[in-house]
Design goal:
Number of strands: 13
Order of helices and strands: HEHEHEEHEHEHEHHHEEHEHEHEHEHH
Distance between the termini: 32 Å
Radius of gyration: 24 Å
Number of helices: 15
Oligomer: single chain
Helix content: 25-40%
Structural class: alpha/beta
Amino acid sequence: MTGTTKADRLPSPAERIGGPLIVTEDESLLDDLLRLCAAAGTEPEVVFTGPPRATSWDEAPLILVGAEASGRVRGAPRRKGVLLVGRDLDDPEVWRRGVGIGADHVLFLPDAESWLVDRIADIAEGACEPALTIGVVGGRGGAGASTLACALAVTAARTGRRTMLIDGDPLGGGLDILLGAERTGGLRWPDLADSRGRVNSGALEESLPRLDSLSVLSWDRGDSVLIPPQAMRSVLGAARRRGGVVVVDLPRRVDEAVAETLAQIDVGLLVVPAELRAVAAATRVASAIGMVLKDLRVVARGPFDSGLRDREIARLVGLPLAGDLPPEPALADALSGSEPPGSSGRGPLARFCGAFLAQALPNSGSVPV
C-alpha cells in the first residue's frame, strides 16, 4: 500500500454538499440562523420575504423555515429535511404550521441551537449512514487482536470503502508500525487529546496518516498520553460520521475512555486462542466489556491441538461464535516483511475478514449472528 498526499484526499466538486436553504421573513431569526450556519462551517441559500425556487426546494440538503414564513412554502412538495424554526414555546400555531408543511421537526431558538448546529454540520460534512464500527480485543495478551483489527481495516479499504483504523490501546505498541506506516506524516493521538465537542469528520480524515483509502489513528513513540473520555467520544463520533468502516483495536481493561469507545461500537470481536488459560482470561474480559458492548462475539484462534474447538471455546466464554482463525504460517513471514495483515487477500485471516465484512456491510451495521 502506498501513501497519498493531502491533495489526493480532498473531495471532488461532485462530493461537496451545498448548504441549507433558509426561508424567513424575520430579520432577527435570519441573523441567528446565519450565525448557526457559520458555526457549522457552511453557507446557506437565503430566501427572504418570498417563496423559494422549485429547484432550491428540491435540491437543498436541509430546509430551515421560519414559523412566520410557513405560508410561503405551504404548497411546496412534501419532502424530508424540512425544519420549522420558532421562538415561542407556548404558541400552539407553530405546531399546526409544522404539520401543515410536513416538517420533520419543530424546534425553538435559542433552546435548540446546539442540536441545530449539529444537524447543519452533518449536512456540511456530507453526513451519511454512520460507519459500521467494529471493535477487536484480545482474550489474553498476544492473542492476535491487533493483527485481526489491521486485517479487517485493510480488507475493507481494499474494496474501495472509506475506512479508518483506530488504535484504542496506548500500550499496544502502535498499529502504524504493524502497517508499516510509522514514518507516514499525520496526526497521532497525543495531537487530539484536547479535542472537545464536535470534531469535523472531513478534517479528521485529512489530517491522519493515510495508506491508499485507509486512514490510521495511532500513537507516537513518545511518553504515554491519557486520552480523556470527551476526546475519545468526539474523535470516534467524527470517524463514524464519515461512513464506511471504522475498526478499533481495544485494550482489555475498561476505563471511562474505553467505555466511551464501546458505546459507539456496533459489534465486538473477542480473539481467544484455543487454550484453557486463554479461555479463562477471555471470560473475564468478556464480562467487563459486555457490561457496555452488548454484541460481543468470539473469534477462536488455532492451532486447536488442545482439543478445544471453536464452538466449545465460544460456549465456555458464553458468547456467540463469529468464526475461527486456523494457523497461518505464512502470516508471520509477511509481517516480518512489513506487509500489512490481510493485504494479500489470501489465507485464513483474509478469508475470515472478507466473509465477516460481506455479511456485515449489507446490513448497515446489524450483523446477523
